[in-house]
């Protein structure tokens, strides 16, 4: 029996926008744990500090062009069952995220 591919979506978001981004990825199908318990909206969050320096062509949501900015951000991790769900969750994240270029990562998971 073949299990569906699983992916982990990790993204970084200013604290004030975290709930909006989580709601968007959950609506796209992320966060549904593939077990018999029917768990949904599964995620892990941790607080940290992000930094960036917007380039000359940037239109930053936070900070100013050319100036180093540090922002309290949340790291959010959530499971995506199936490649299609992962793709839809990333699309939803990009629409909901306040940054011009949101930082995110997608990892393919393995069963052990």
Short description:
The chain has 112 residues and is an alpha+beta fold. Helix content is 21%, strand content 33%.
Describe the structure.
The chain has helices at 18-27, 83-96; strands at 6-14, 44-52, 69-81, 104-109. Helix 1 runs antiparallel to helix 2 (83-96). It is elongated, with a radius of gyration of 15 Å. Helix content is 21%, strand content 33%. It has one domain (6-109): Alpha-Beta Plaits, CATH 3.30.70. The chain has 112 residues and is α+β, with helices and mostly antiparallel strands. It has a four-stranded antiparallel β-sheet with strand order 2-3-1-4.
> Biggest sheet, strands in spatial order?
2-3-1-4
Low-confidence stretches: none
Q: What's the helix-strand series?
A: EHEEHE
Find the CATH topology: Alpha-Beta Plaits
Q: Layout of SSEs?
A:
Blueprint lengths: L5 E9 L3 H10 L16 E9 L16 E13 L1 H14 L7 E6 L3
Antiparallel strand pairs: 1-3, 1-4, 2-3
Helix pairs in contact: 1-2
